[in-house]
Amino acid sequence: ILTKNAEEDCETKFPALVLASFLKERIAEYGFSWDIQLSPKMASRVSVEPEQKTVYINAAKTFTEKDITRLAVHEIDAHVLRCENGERQGYHLLSSGTVGSVTILPVTSSK
Predict the structure, then answer these.
(1) How many of the other CB atoms lie within 10 Å of CB of 16?
(2) Nearest Cα residue to 100 out of 60, 41, 51
(3) What are the residues whose beta carbons fall under 8 Å from the beta carbon of 47, sequence distance 6 or more?
(4) C-beta separation of 11 from 70 below 8 A
(5) Cβ atoms within 10 Å, residue 35
(6) pLDDT tens digits for the chain (111 residues)?
(7) Which pTM was predicted?
């Protein structure tokens, strides 16, 4: 059973704009040219679109300092870095991932 840590309830929550600023700085440290956009309608908190070179942040969410650090590592140091490395090595699969590589056919009833 998952329980909330009492400390998590007391942590300061920062608006999405603070996360956006932090991620922009992280991307700039690598020398990459990516866009960071706040989106008012997202199911997830953060999403990376490699083909658009854009990181989307859910504008309606707030983030703790731990969230900001974790998301920088995951979204920038994993997804963005993988994309940039893949482009430089010529392996398109590594830059864009496998999105769209599998076609799922609709399920039909066979009574």
Answers:
(1) 20
(2) 51
(3) 55, 56
(4) no
(5) 12
(6) 456 665 566 789 999 999 999 999 999 999 999 999 999 989 999 999 998 999 999 999 999 999 999 999 999 999 999 889 888 886 666 666 655 656 666 777 666
(7) 0.77
- Amino acid code (one letter) for 12: T
- Going by their DSSP bridges, the two strands 62-63 and 54-58 should be labelled as unpaired
Residue 3's H or E segment, with its range, is none
CA quadruple 35, 26, 99, 97: dihedral, nearest 10: 130
Does residue 110 sit in helix, strand or coil? coil
The helix or strand, by DSSP H or E, that contains position 32, with its residue range, turns out to be: none
